[in-house]
Write a structure and sequence with these properties.
The complex is a heterotrimer of chains A (205), B (196) and C (219). Chain B is an all-alpha fold. Chain B is built from eight helices and no strands. The longest helix of chain B has 31 residues. Chain B starts with a helix and ends with a helix. Chain C has one domain. Classes of the chains: A alpha/beta (205), B mainly alpha (196), C mainly alpha (219). Chains in contact: A-B, A-C, B-C. At the B-C interface, helix 6, helix 7 and helix 8 of B face helix 4 and helix 5 of C.
Chain lengths: 205, 196, 219
């Protein structure tokens, strides 16, 4: 049973406050949406949870059965999709997934990668160079990349970005599946995406 | 490209006949190392800068261990340098009629020097990828760090050319010590630079 | 207060003694050897400063205490100034003794390298916008640079000796008669005292300036 605890997180960028005293808790099976206008700090909050950015104050902790998890192990528990997180355009989709498998130290399994690609609806284009992908296809690949290691915590920053209605169904399915063994945090402005969550935190005052 | 252009410029303007025989070993060593170091400085920062520009730097930070990233980049820089050396050095020898007495020593010097150049600059490359004014800053930062290596390399190549006092390959040992120290320190310091 | 007065008086005594008390050393043209009283302590302070800066960097990386970073930076700035002074006085000496301003002998080369390291350190710090990153990077660079110092100490003399054997005589340790020795040590003490005094003022200034900045919740 995993849980995420965010306590009094604040972030300033040279004296202009972006996030102020954000706190919440999340548990396995729950999904949280973070909403707010552009520039309200949704992406930053997700990046802070992921560990990519240090908060100016406060802390983020992940617990397994109430035991806090160390920073090094945190890496294995988080999967993230965001516009700022890119994939390698010089490789094909399959090569990208295989690379991330290797880099994460997951037993590198072609079957698994292909399964994942099917899950996100990219099977036919598995061997095309990502440079030639449409933005929707890239988004699907990013989703696949985030799920490679079955992370208990899934961070989705605008998951529906560039996706058509079929793509949105994929996202919906992923969030649903994620409920059975983990937590999800979604950052978005879109109604349809926010609806997938149980609770909403609004960053705009 | 830089290396080739410099090589051609040097060979053209200096040529092997304009320099007296006694001066040759030393001067050639200096010229060769200048070409190698400056080519390294112009090319080695790309590995990190490219990641930042493509946006893949964050995904790496999320998925990989910092040490793995460092070693990967180090290995890449090393391969790049060794490839560069394998083209430039023979060309240099040919064009300048560089007479080398102790070839094994010379080769060992060049190779260990290549290791050193990669080892000394990888962490710096990681730092400047996050800073502004990248190109010039990279050179300014790396040069003082590479200077001991460069001086050792010049001395070693000079000795190899003359063929005197080569037993034990002293400069190669110094160069290897440099490599080991730099890599160890970099492995310790890199995670601090990599994570935010 | 007393310390400052003592220091200033001491320095004044040293300067006077440098010219009137100690006799000129043999083997050096005219009065030029007197520069030893100024040049060597400056070089010593410059190197010591580098060491202090590196120690501050290490402390900062392990403890993340801003005070350690103030030490590292102030030591670097002050060290740079003394390094510049040492280079200039060394150059003047070279001109007077050997006839040319610059000769690339081991001492001169090492001082220039130190100058370059300091310069690179400042360039790096000013190129990084984020405060925390700036400190971390500065510290990392300072430690890396320090790691190359042992090599410089061994390697530089060997190569420059082969270049210009006639110039390897740097005014390191000529046999000093008692008066000279006394003034020299006195000067060393004076310079070190001066350095430490200015250093702690600089650190205090950094601390005060950090209060002026809006409190951005340092962890």
């Amino acid at each position: 049973m995993y849980s995420l605890r965010v306590t009094n997180v604040s972030k300033h960028y040279s004296a202009t406050p972006l996030l102020q005293n954000i706190s919440f808790q999340l548990q396995t099976g729950e999904a949280l949406a973070v909403a707010g206008w552009n520039g309200s700090g949704k992406s930053t909050l997700l990046r802070i949870i992921a560990g990519l950015v240090k908060p100016s104050a406060g802390k983020v902790q992940i617990f397994f059965d109430n035991e806090p998890i160390s920073k090094e192990r945190k890496r294995k528990l988080i999967g993230m999709v965001a516009p700022s997180l890119a994939i390698y355009e010089e490789l094909t989709a399959l090569e990208n997934l295989e690379f991330f498998c290797r880099v994460r130290g997951i037993p590198h399994n072609r079957e698994k990668c292909l399964d994942l690609m099917e899950r996100v609806g990219l099977c036919e284009q598995a061997n095309k160079m990502c440079r030639n992908y449409s933005s929707g296809m890239i988004q699907r690949l990013k989703l696949a990349q985030a799920l490679l290691h079955n992370p208990p915590l899934l961070l989705l920053d605008e998951p529906g970005c560039n996706l058509d209605s079929k793509g949105m169904k994929v996202v919906e399915r992923i969030i649903l599946d994620q409920r059975s063994f983990g937590m999800t945090v979604i950052a978005s402005n879109e109604e349809r995406e926010v609806e997938y969550a149980d609770r909403v935190i609004n960053l705009s005052k | 490209m830089f290396a080739l252009t410099t090589l051609i410029a040097v060979s053209f303007s200096i040529g092997s006949f304009r320099i007296g025989e006694t001066e040759k070993p030393f001067l050639y060593a200096v010229l060769l190392w200048i070409i190698l170091v400056f080519s390294a400085l112009s090319g080695l920062s790309r590995s990190f800068v490219k990641e930042r520009e493509a946006g893949t730097i964050d995904v790496l930070r999320l998925s990989a261990r910092p040490q793995a990233v460092f070693l990967g980049k180090l290995f890449f820089n090393l391969t790049l340098l060794l490839a560069l050396e394998s083209i430039i050095v023979p060309l240099f020898i040919l064009l300048m009629e560089y007479k080398i007495e102790s070839f094994g020593f010379f080769a060992a010097m060049i190779i260990s020097g290549g290791f050193g150049l990669a080892a000394g600059t990888t962490v710096v490359a990681a730092m400047i990828a996050q800073a502004s004014a990248r190109g010039a800053l990279f050179s300014a930062l790396s040069f003082p760090l590479l200077l001991p290596l460069m001086i050792t390399g010049i001395k070693g190549c000079e000795r190899a050319a003359i063929g005197v006092g080569v037993t034990g390959w002293p400069e190669v040992k110094i160069s290897l010590a440099y490599v080991i120290i730099m890599i160890t320190m970099s492995l310790l310091l890199f995670p601090l630079v990599w994570e935010e | 207060m007393i310390c400052k007065i003592l220091l200033i008086t001491w320095m004044a005594v040293v300067i006077v003694a440098a010219f009137f008390y100690a006799g000129p050393a043999t083997g050096f043209p005219g009065e030029t050897s007197r520069i030893v009283f100024f040049h060597v302590p400056q070089a010593w302070v410059a190197t010591f400063s580098f060491l202090l800066s590196m120690v501050g960097s290490l402390l900062y990386l392990t403890k993340r205490n801003p005070g350690a970073d103030y030490l590292a930076q102030s030591a670097a700035e002050l060290g740079f100034v003394f390094c510049l002074l040492a280079t200039i006085t060394g150059s003047i000496f070279a001109r007077a003794t050997w006839g040319s301003f610059w000769n690339w002998d081991p001492r001169e080369t090492s001082i220039v390298i130190l100058l370059m390291i300091y310069g690179a350190y400042f360039a790096l710090r000013s190129a990084v916008p984020d405060e925390e990153r700036k400190r971390v990077f500065g510290a990392v660079y300072s430690i890396l640079a320090f790691a190359t110092v042992p090599f410089l100490v061994f390697v530089v003399p060997r190569i420059t000796a082969s270049l210009h054997p006639e110039n390897t005589m740097s005014p390191a340790k000529p046999a000093m008669d008692p008066e000279t020795l006394v003034v020299f040590l006195g000067s060393l003490l004076a310079y070190t005292g001066l350095y430490l005094w200015i250093l702690q003022i600089k650190i205090r200034i950094s601390k005060i300036e950090s209060f002026k900045k809006p409190n951005i919740g340092q962890r």
